[in-house]
Amino acid sequence: MKITDLVPQKKDPNRVSVFLDGQFAFGLSQQIRFEQKLEIDGEIDQKTVTALVSQDQLNRLVERMLRFLSFRPRSEKEVSDHFLYKAKLKDLTVSEIELATYKKSIGKAIDKLKKLEQLNDTEFVSWWVGQRNRFKPKGVALLKVELLQKGISRELIDNFFEKSSNSSESDLESALRAIDKKLPSFQKLPSTDFKKKVTQFLLRRGFGWDVVNSVIDRTKPKS
Asked: So which residues are the signal peptide here (predicted)?
């Protein structure tokens, strides 16, 4: 295939549109273009094209993923799902070559971020549970469901909570913090209504019956 044109992109002059045999083929960073000494009328084979696009996509994905991670820690699945969704949006806006390599490059970019210690599911679990306990306390059962939804393996989740000291005591402390702001209004209710309100509130937060009963015993209004 012959390189018939190299056109700087209007939206990003640091990138160039590469035309092969008279048709747009793919976009590429100017850095890679000059490193590979691509010139108009030069010849290029399909293997080289695929390698260049893969390298370019990987570099851009790592940069974008780091930006995505700068807002808050993420699980591997969150990052993968976000950029796979972006890939779907790209279906009609990039060449077939770019789209195919983009999807393959997502996994490579995630692997690179893991090696750079910028993506770690174990650390994410610790951060997620810490944030929940601090700002919106929930029971261990519900926390496990949330983490599973984030793509964390059941084994990793179980190991984390097994290593946590006295999870039942932690659950009770979390439940007391969770209901703290509601207690003043609940404690004004008749005993039956008080128990009902506390029970419904804590069960919705994923706390077990043993924790619910302990909270009721500790906080019920004195008759």
From this structure: none
Retrieve residue 76's tokens: 């591997």
Per the confidence metrics, is the pTM higher than 0.90?
no
Under a CB-based contact definition with an 8 Å cutoff, are residues 99 and 87 in contact? yes
84 or 62, which is more confident? 62
Q: What does the radius of gyration of the chain's CA atoms come to, in whole angstroms?
A: 27
For the chain, give every domain's residue range. Answer: 3-114, 121-219
> What order of strands is seen across the sheet that includes strand 15-20?
3-8, 15-20, 23-29
CATH class of the structural domain 3-114: mainly alpha
Phi-psi sector, 15: left (phi>0), alpha (psi -120 to 50), beta: beta
Q: Give, in degrees to the nearest 5, the angle at Cα 106 between 104 and 107.
A: 80
Q: CA-CA distance, 56 to 97, in Å (whole number)?
A: 12
**Amino acid code (one letter) for 195:** K
Give the three-class secondary structure for 18: strand
